[in-house]
Task: inverse folding
C-alpha cells in the first residue's frame, strides 16, 4: 500500500496507523519514546518527593498551604475529558470520517487550551499570593519543574495537533497522515497519564500532608 | 540521485555528507567526528601523564589540570567511545539484519548532527572562559561553585549531544524490531546486532535521568533554582543519584557493543560457530537488566547506610555471573577452532585477560567495606581504565581493522596493524597496571602533582612511558589509514575470507540501497550457511522490484545549529542583554525547522528496476 | 498485519462488520471514561473528607491513580489490542526503572 494512494470507505484499512512500514516504524518508535518519557517523568517525580516541603525558613509556604481542591478538580476534569474527545477523533479516523475527526480534535485542542489557561492562572496565583517562586526554595524549584514540564508537554501537544489539523484540512485522510494523527493522540493520552499522577502525588498527597 | 554520480567536486561531496540520510555515510561521519574527539581526548591524556611524570612538576597549573582531566573523561566517554560505537552500529547493524536502511533515516542524520554540535559546543569552552573543571561526573557541590562558564559548557553541550544519542537509540531499536529480512528471527541475529539492541534499550532508559540532572544543573547555575543548594532546602546528593542512574548503564552501553564486536571476531577467525549462542544472548540481556540496579556502588561512601550498601554490593557482584558466561563462551569458541591471528583477532585475544583483570578489581571495589579504602584513589583509575580501554577501546581498534574493508572497500595494512596492536598492548599495561599499586600506596585520584620521597616517582614514570607507547600506536594507525587510502586497492565482498554474517555477502562498500533483493535468511551465520553449500551469494526472498529510498535533507543540520545558538544565549543571559533574544532565536530556528519538516511532505523516491539491472552490468553485485 | 479483520471477500460486509466493531469499542471507551471520572471523584472525596488518616488516604489514592492509568493505557491507548507486545515490554521496563528511581529517592536520601 502506497502512502499517497486515495481511499474510500471501502478500501480504508482496519488499522491505518500501522498499514505501511513507515507507519509501523513511527508507531513503534513513538511507543519507545513514551517508555523513555516514563523514566523522564519518574526522575522528576522522584526529585519532587525528595524535595517536597524543603524550604529555607518558616515563612515559606508548604504544599498544604498552597493547593486548593476545586481548581485542581476543574483542571483534572478538563484534561480527562480531552482524552475522551481524542479517543472519539481516532474512532472517526478508523471509520474514515475526516470531518468528524477534525471536529473532535478541535474540541480536544480547546479543552487543552483551557487547561493551560488555568495552569497559568494557578502559577501566577502562587507567585503573587504566597511568594512561592522557582527561586524561593528547593520545593519551589521542584514543584515548578515537574508541573511546568507537564505544562510544556501540553503546549507542545497543542501546537502539534493544531499543525496537523491545519496542514491536512484540505486533503483529507491518507496512509501518510493517519499515523501522524494516531501518534499525536497517543502523545495526548500520555500527557493525561502523567497528569493523573501529578494530581494524585503533588496535589492530593500535598493536601493530606 | 547524487550517489550515481561518479566524480564530484569537493563542495558537492561536502554538501552530500551534510544532507545525507544513508546509514553508511552517517557511519563514516560518526567515525571521523568520533576519531577526532578520540585524538583530542588522547592528547589531554598525554598532558595528564606529562604533568605527573615527575614530582613537583609545573607543566600545567592545578586549575588547568582540573580542566584537562575533566575534558579527558567527558570527551572520551561522550564524544569518542559512544560515537565510534555508533559508527559501527550504523555501518554494520542494518547490513547484518538484511535491511536497506535504518527505520528513521532523517532522525539518524539529526542524531549525528546533534551529537556533533553538542561536542563542538563543549570543546569551544577551551577558547571561551575556560573548560569545565569539576570532573566528568561534575558533582554538584563542586560544579555549583565553579567560577566562569566551564560547567555551563558541560551541561549545555551534553544536553544537546545527549538528545542526539537518545534519538539514535530509539532508531536502532525500531530498525531491529521492524526491519529484519525474511527468516531473520531474533535468535538468528548476529551477536553484534543483539548487543546493539540491548545497548540501545539502555540508552532509551538511561539518558532521561541524565537529561533531568543536566536540566537541574542548568537551572541551578543559570536560572536561579535551588535543586542542589542545601541552604535553600536543596540536596547535592540528588545530582549524584541522577548522574549514576544514567552513568552506570552508560558503561554497559559502551561495553556491550564491544562484546558484540569481539563475538563476531572470535567466531570469524576461529572459523567456528560462536559457542553457546543462546547463553550469550541471555547474558547480554541480563547484564543490561542488572546494569540498572547497581548505580549506587559509585556512592558507597556518601553514607547511604549499611542496608543500601549491602544491597548494591550484592547486585554488583551478581553481574560477574553473566560476564563470566561470556568469557567462557569466547574461550570455548576458540577451543578446537582453526584460528587465524589477524589484527582483529589479536585484539580479541588480548582483550580477554585485560578485561578480566578489570573485572576482578571491579569485584574488589564492589565490596562496600573495602571500597572505603579504595575510594577516590588511583586504584579506581586503574580499574576503570582496565575495563574501558581493555574492553571498549580494544574493541574499537579491533572493529576499525575488522570493518574497515566493509566501510571503505580497502584493507588496512596487516603488518602496520600488528605493530599498532603490540605497541598499544604493551603501553596500556605499562600505564595502568602500576596504577593499582600507586592507588594502594595512597595516591589520590585527580591530584595535579605529588611530592618527592613518597615512593610514587617510579610508578608514575612507568605510567608515563606507557602513555608514550600508546600514542605511538595511534600514530601508526593513522599512518596506516593514510597509506591504505592513498593506495586505494579495492577488495571484494568477503576480504577476510571467513565472513559469517550477512554484511560479508554484500560488495565492499555496499551500494547505497544495500540489498537489490532482500535476502532469505536460513539460520544463524546466514552467509556462512550459503558458502558451505557452495553458493556464491544469498538466495533472494523477493523478486527484483522498485526500491523505495528516503530523500536527503539539510534540515537536521539547521535544527542542530538552532540549539547550538540557543545554548550560547542561555549561558550568557545573566551578563549580557542579548542572551535571552539569542536563546529564543535559536529555539525558534529549531522549532521552525521542525515545523517545516512536519508541513512539507517527504515521500522519498524510487529506484527503478531497470536502473538496478543496469547497475549490475557495471559490475556491482548484491 | 497484526490487527487484520477476517475478510469475507465482500468489501461491503467487511465494512459493516468493522463499523459495528468500532462502534462497540467506542461504547467501551465511554464506559471506561465514566469509570475514570468516578475514580477521580472518589480520590478527591477521600482527600476532601478530613476524617480519614493519611496512612489510609495516601495508599488508597495511589491505588486509584494506578487503576486509572491502566484504563488509560489499555483502553484509550489501545494497549489491549494485538501488536502491542513491544510497546508493553518497553513501557513496563520504563515503569520499572522509574519505580526503582523513585524508591531510591524516598529511601536512601534522608538528609
Result:
Amino acid at each position: 500500500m502506497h502512502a499517497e494512494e486515495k481511499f474510500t470507505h471501502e478500501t480504508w484499512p482496519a488499522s491505518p496507523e500501522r498499514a505501511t512500514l513507515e507507519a509501523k516504524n513511527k508507531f513503534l518508535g513513538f511507543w519507545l519514546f513514551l517508555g523513555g518519557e516514563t523514566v523522564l517523568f519518574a526522575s522528576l517525580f522522584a526529585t519532587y518527593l525528595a524535595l517536597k516541603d524543603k524550604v529555607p525558613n518558616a515563612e515559606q509556604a508548604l504544599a498544604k498551604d498552597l493547593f486548593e481542591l476545586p481548581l485542581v478538580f476543574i483542571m483534572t476534569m478538563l484534561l480527562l475529558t480531552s482524552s475522551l474527545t481524542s479517543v472519539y477523533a481516532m474512532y472517526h479516523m478508523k471509520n474514515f470520517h475526516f470531518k468528524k475527526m477534525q471536529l473532535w480534535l478541535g474540541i480536544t485542542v480547546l479543552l487543552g487550551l483551557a487547561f493551560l489557561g488555568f495552569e497559568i492562572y494557578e502559577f501566577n496565583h502562587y507567585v503573587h499570593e504566597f511568594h512561592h517562586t522557582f527561586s524561593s526554595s528547593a520545593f519551589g524549584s521542584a514543584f515548578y519543574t515537574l508541573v511546568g514540564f507537564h505544562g510544556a508537554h501540553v503546549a507542545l501537544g497543542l501546537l502539534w495537533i493544531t499543525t496537523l489539523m491545519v496542514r491536512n484540512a484540505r486533503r483529507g485522510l491518507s496512509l501518510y497522515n493517519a499515523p501522524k494523527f494516531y501518534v499525536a493522540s497517543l502523545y495526548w493520552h500520555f500527557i493525561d497519564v502523567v497528569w493523573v499522577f501529578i494530581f494524585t502525588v503533588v496535589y492530593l498527597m500535598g493536601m493530606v500532608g | 540521485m547524487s550517489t550515481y554520480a561518479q566524480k564530484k567536486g569537493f563542495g558537492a561531496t561536502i554538501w552530500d555528507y551534510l544532507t545525507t540520510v544513508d546509514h553508511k555515510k552517517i557511519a563514516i561521519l560518526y567515525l571521523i567526528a568520533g576519531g577526532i574527539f578520540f585524538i583530542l581526548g588522547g592528547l589531554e591524556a598525554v598532558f595528564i601523564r606529562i604533568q605527573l611524570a615527575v614530582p613537583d612538576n609545573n607543566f600545567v597549573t592545578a586549575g588547568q589540570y582540573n580542566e584537562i582531566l575533566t575534558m579527558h573523561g567527558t570527551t572520551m566517554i561522550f564524544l569518542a567511545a559512544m560515537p565510534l560505537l555508533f559508527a559501527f552500529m550504523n555501518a554494520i547493524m542494518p547490513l547484518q539484519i538484511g535491511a536497506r536502511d535504518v527505520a528513521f533515516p532523517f532522525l539518524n542524520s539529526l542524531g549525528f548532527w546533534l551529537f556533533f554540535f553538542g561536542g563542538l559546543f563543549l570543546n569551544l569552552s577551551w577558547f571561551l572562559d575556560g573548560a569545565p573543571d569539576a570532573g566528568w561526573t561534575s558533582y554538584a557541590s563542586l560544579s555549583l561553585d565553579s567560577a566562569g562558564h566551564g560547567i555551563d559548557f558541560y551541561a549545555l553541550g551534553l544536553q544537546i549531544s545527549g538528545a542526539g544519542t537518545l534519538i539514535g537509540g530509539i532508531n536502532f531499536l525500531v530498525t531491529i524490531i521492524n526491519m529484519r529480512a525474511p527468516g531473520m528471527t531474533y535468535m538468528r541475529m548476529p551477536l553484534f546486532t543483539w548487543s546493539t539492541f540491548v545497548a540501545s534499550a539502555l540508552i532509551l532508559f538511561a539518558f532521561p535521568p541524565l537529561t533531568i540532572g543536566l536540566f537541574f544543573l542548568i537551572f541551578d547555575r543559570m536560572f536561579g533554582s535551588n535543586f542542589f543548594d542545601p541552604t535553600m532546602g536543596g540536596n547535592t546528593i540528588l545530582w549524584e543519584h541522577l548522574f549514576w542512574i544514567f552513568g552506570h548503564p552508560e558503561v554497559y552501553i559502551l561495553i556491550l557493543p564491544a562484546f558484540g564486536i569481539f563475538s563476531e571476531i572470535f567466531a570469524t577467525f576461529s572459523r567456528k560457530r560462536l559457542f553457546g549462542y543462546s547463553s550469550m544472548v541471555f547474558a547480554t540481556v541480563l547484564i543490561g537488566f542488572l546494569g540498572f540496579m547497581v548505580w549506587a556502588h559509585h556512592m558507597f561512601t556518601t553514607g547511604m547506610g549499611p542496608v543500601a550498601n549491602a544491597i548494591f554490593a550484592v547486585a554488583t557482584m551478581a553481574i560477574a555471573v553473566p560476564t563470566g558466561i561470556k568469557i567462557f563462551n569466547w574461550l570455548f569458541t576458540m577451543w578446537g577452532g582453526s584460528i587465524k591471528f589477524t589484527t582483529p583477532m589479536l585484539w580479541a585475544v588480548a582483550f580477554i585477560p585485560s578485561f578480566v583483570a578489570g573485572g576482578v578489581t571491579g569485584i574488589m571495589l564492589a565490596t562496600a567495606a573495602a571500597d572505603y579504602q579504595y575510594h577516590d584513589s588511583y586504584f579506581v583509575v586503574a580499574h576503570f581504565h582496565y575495563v574501558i580501554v581493555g574492553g571498549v577501546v580494544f574493541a574499537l581498534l579491533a572493529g576499525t581493522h575488522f570493518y574497515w574493508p566493509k566501510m571503505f572497500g580497502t584493507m588496512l595494512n596487516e603488518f602496520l596493524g600488528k605493530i599498532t596492536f603490540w605497541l598499544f598492548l604493551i603501553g596500556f599495561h605499562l600505564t595502568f597496571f602500576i596504577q593499582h599499586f600507586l592507588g594502594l600506596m595512597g595516591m589520590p585520584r585527580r591530584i595535579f602533582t605529588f611530592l618527592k620521597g613518597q615512593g610514587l616517582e617510579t610508578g608514575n614514570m612507568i605510567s608515563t612511558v606507557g602513555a608514550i607507547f600508546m600514542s605511538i600506536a595511534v600514530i601508526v594507525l593513522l599512518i596506516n589509514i593514510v597509506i591504505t587510502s592513498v593506495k586505494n586497492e579495492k577488495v571484494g565482498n568477503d576480504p577476510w575470507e571467513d565472513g559469517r554474517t550477512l554484511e560479508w555477502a554484500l560488495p565492499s562498500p555496499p551500494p547505497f540501497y544495500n540489498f537489490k533483493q532482500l535476502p532469505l535468511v536460513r539460520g544463524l551465520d546466514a552467509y556462512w550457511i550459503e558458502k558451505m553449500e557452495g553458493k556464491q551469494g544469498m538466495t533472494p526472498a523477493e523478486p527484483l522490484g522498485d526500491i523505495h529510498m528516503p530523500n536527503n535533507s539539510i534540515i537536521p543540520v539547521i535544527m542542530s545549529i538552532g540549539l547550538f545558538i540557543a545554548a550560547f544565549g542561555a549561558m550568557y543571559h545573566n551578563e549580557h542583554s542579548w542572551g535571552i533574544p539569542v536563546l529564543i532565536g535559536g529555539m525558534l530556528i529549531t522549532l521552525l525547522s521542525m515545523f517545516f519538516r512536519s508541513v512539507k511532505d517527504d515521500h522519498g523516491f524510487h529506484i527503478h528496476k531497470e536502473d538496478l539491472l543496469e547497475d549490475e552490468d557495471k559490475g556491482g553485485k548484491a | 498485519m497484526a490487527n487484520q479483520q477476517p475478510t469475507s471477500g465482500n468489501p461491503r460486509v467487511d465494512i459493516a462488520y468493522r463499523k459495528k466493531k468500532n462502534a462497540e469499542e467506542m461504547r467501551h471507551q465511554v464506559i471506561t471514561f465514566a469509570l475514570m471520572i468516578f475514580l477521580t471523584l472518589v480520590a478527591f472525596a477521600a482527600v476532601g473528607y478530613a476524617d480519614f488518616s493519611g496512612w489510609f488516604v495516601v495508599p488508597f489514592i495511589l491505588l486509584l491513580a494506578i487503576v486509572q492509568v491502566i484504563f488509560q493505557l489499555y483502553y484509550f491507548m489501545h494497549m489491549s489490542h494485538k501488536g502491542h507486545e513491544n510497546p508493553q515490554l518497553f513501557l513496563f521496563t520504563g515503569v520499572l526503572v522509574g519505580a526503582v528511581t523513585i524508591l531510591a529517592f524516598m529511601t536512601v536520601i534522608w538528609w
Remarks:
- Chain B touches chain C at residues 173, 177, 201, 204-205, 209, 235, 237-238, 241, 245, 292-293, 296, 303-305, 308 (CB under 8 Å).
- Confidence is low (pLDDT under 50) at residues 1-5 of chain B.
- Residues 2-553+602-617 of chain B form a domain with the Cytochrome C Oxidase; Chain A fold (CATH 1.20.210.10).
